Every structure is written in structure tokens, then in C-alpha cells.
């Protein structure tokens, strides 16, 4: 595995990592890909052998999980299922954890997790929350084979990477929510445009008033269990029978 | 004095947006006055890319004639801001730079020496609409004025996003759509539908036909639309 510390160009890689983690406002943003990038940077820049990350929703349910390698990813998922482990505790509590897996306390706290991690040669695990102020959206786990706990410098840098990723994710989420609102409003306006056009068209074709044309379209749509917008679209593109719609008078509808 | 008033106005609107209010919370006339422009409009881009005016100062005032002309001709600062996602400024529509950039618009008979600033309403990588300020006097927009317009544009977008889609989608029979936030050119779209049936052409072509007539007769598009619907104006398929 890569251990980036001390090698040439570390500062550039550090800068590149932060820039990449801030770049979430792109067209083809993919959350899993982004989380995977975070774990790759962690393994590259810190003295750790593997990294995993989980994202939780507001109720603490798992949204996404990924890791620098497949076995670690399974461990991330297992923490949710087992309801134990540093990533889960860190995401729930919003505070960093740093544990020596040989400690008896740690084994007692996370029996299944510890057994699994030790079996794969890891001796220590740290977790830093993905957190912005009061909002905790997940956690980053850092697995290493050096004895004891992670160095304070690495833990700080790990937290900094997690912070950058959190800001990126929250920003993306905010923009995503607003984008959804925007597309709803835009499609409402699109509907209105086609409806007004259909009213004018039907009124000219049948000699009905605009209001009456609208009333008959509504009645026809209701009678045939169609969306008014779909009917209006059919009127405008010529695929609806205007005579039939015009016959949707109160007497024929009842 | 008026800066304080602007600050208070923006603060109030920010709060209104946080409370879930929509654009009807913002008086266009007040906004225009405090931002030192004579006309102010907000257009939302339809999925087709076409701009639809949604909110703004009254259509009788200076600005919308020019705004309508931009839609009619398909060129101008607002159109460019929507397309590029950047603020577009025309300090004087009678100068050479403007003439080179928008040859038809600046040559149009109704084009008077206006200064125009068009601020895109951006949502991530998408341009949702454009806020356009019109001034009857030529000259640059000061940095302060630009910042104020930017601040207002950001708040206006937040208000816009609070618009209940239903109020935009379907006018309920018997009740007029709310005057502040609705499709401003409903009449034009009705007339386009009407004309498409009359001339047996597509609605898009009918819309072009209406615009061409408005432009060549130097009349507001809304007036042409009204006359077509009232059967007072009989357009032929060719211009």
C-alpha cells in the first residue's frame, strides 16, 4: 500500500486533495466516487494502510459507504449491521476516536469489529467525523498497522480532509435540493405555457371562448383520467381530437 | 438615506425567503427604485431555453418594451446573460459596442438610449433565469450598484425557489392568477395557439409570426396578441 509521507511532492498532493474535495459543483457529480476519492487521499497522505467512510442520513441510517479497498468497505458496512465500531461511534457522537486494537477496553467495546480488524493485520484504527458545526453526516475511518494510536499530526490532517469533504458534500446537497425545487417550478411553467397555447388553439378551432375551451379541456381530462398538461400537449401537437374535447360539455360529462 | 432603505429592504426580503415566501413578497417598483433603475424584470428559463418574464415592474414603464424586443429578436443583454451565465452590461445601447454586439436590437425603432444590466440567476452549473435592470440614462453601472443588484438577484432566486409550482401551473377557473408571480405572457401563448389553428402552422411558427408582426409594425407583442385573439387582426402565413 502507498504511504505518502515524506515522499517528494507531498505538498502538491495535499493541495490537490483539498481542491478535489471542494469540487462538488460539477455536472456529473457522483457521491460514491467522491467518497472513494476521499479514502484514496487519506491512504496517500497519512500513515495509514486503509481508509473507509460512511455517510448517514439525519436519522442515523446508512446512506453510502465506501473504502480504499473492498475488504475495508465490507467492514464499514458491517459496523452498521453490527451496531458497533469506530466509524459508527464517530458518526453518531460527532467526535474523533483513536483506538489501539490491542487494548482490552477496545475489544470489549467493539468485540466483533476488533476481532475482524486484528485478523486482517490492523493494530489501530482512528475515526474522524464528517461534520460541519452541529451537523454530522458521517465518518472517516483510518486503519493502520503501526503500534499504538495514530500520530496527532495524521489525526489532524485526517480531520482536515474530512472537513473539506463535508463542506463539499453539504454544498452539493444544498445545490441539489435547490435544483430539484427549480425543476419543479420550471416544469410548472412549461405546463402553463402549453396549456395557454392549447386554450387558444381549441378556442379558434371550435369558436368557443377561451374560458369555455379551458373548461372543456379540464372536463375531458378528468373524464378520461388524463393529466391536463398531457391533454394540452396533445392539443398543441395535433394528436388530440379537438371535436371530441369540444363535446365534453356539462351534459355529456355527467 | 436610500442606502439604509435598500439595506432594510434586502434584510426584510432575506427573512421573507427564509420564511418560505415567494416573489410576491417583493415589490418590483420598490426594488427598482432602491436599485436606481427604472425597470426591473425577472425571467425564468423554460425547459426549451426560452425566457419567460415572471415578475417585474409594470409593463407600461420604459423597460419591458425593450425586454419584449429582446425576446422578439432573440438577442440582447438578457438573452446573452441566460446563454452565457455571466452578467452582461450595456452602458449605452446607442454606442458602437452595443451596435456590433446586438445589431438588430440596437437598430430597432423603439430602442432608446437605455443602459441595461442583466444578471444571471445561477444554481450550481444551471442558469435558472435572469434579473434585468433597465435605466433610461446611459452610462456605466457603479461597482456598488452592481453589488446591490447581485445581492438582490441572489435573494430573488431564493424567493423564486419558494414559488409553489401549482400557482404557476394551472390558473383556476374564476380566479385570476396572482398578479405578482405568474406567466406574464399568457396572452401571447394563447394567441400563438389561436393563430396556429387559424393558419394551420405549428405553435412555434405562430409565435414567430406574432413577433415578426409586432417588430415590423413597432407594436408591443401583448397588443398584437390581444388583437389576434379578439379577431381584430388577421395575420397571413407570410410576413
Automatic annotation (TrEMBL), chain A:
Q: Does the keyword Kinase apply?
A: yes
Q: ANTAR domain: from which residue to which, for each copy?
A: 175-236
Q: Which InterPro entries match?
A: ANTAR, CheY-like_superfamily, GAF, GAF-like_dom_sf, GAF_ANTAR, WH-like_DNA-bd_sf
Keyword Transcription regulation listed: yes
**What is an example of a Pfam family matching this protein?**
GAF_2
Which keywords does this Swiss-Prot/TrEMBL entry list? Kinase, Transcription, Transcription regulation, Transferase
Which Gene3D superfamilies does the record match to this protein?
3.30.450.40, Winged helix-like DNA-binding domain superfamily/Winged helix DNA-binding domain
Q: Write one Gene Ontology MF term.
A: kinase activity
| Organism domain of life | Bacteria
- Protein's recorded name: Transcriptional regulator
Organism, by scientific name, is Streptomyces minutiscleroticus
From TrEMBL, chain B:
The keyword Transcription is annotated on this UniProt entry: yes
Instruction: Please identify the protein, giving its name as recorded.
Output: ANTAR domain-containing protein
Superkingdom: Bacteria
Ranges of residues in domain ANTAR: 168-229
Keywords of this entry: Transcription, Transcription regulation
Q: Which GO terms describe its molecular function?
A: RNA binding
Q: Does the keyword S-adenosyl-L-methionine apply?
A: no
Phylogenetic classification of the source organism: Bacteria, Bacillati, Actinomycetota, Actinomycetes, Kitasatosporales
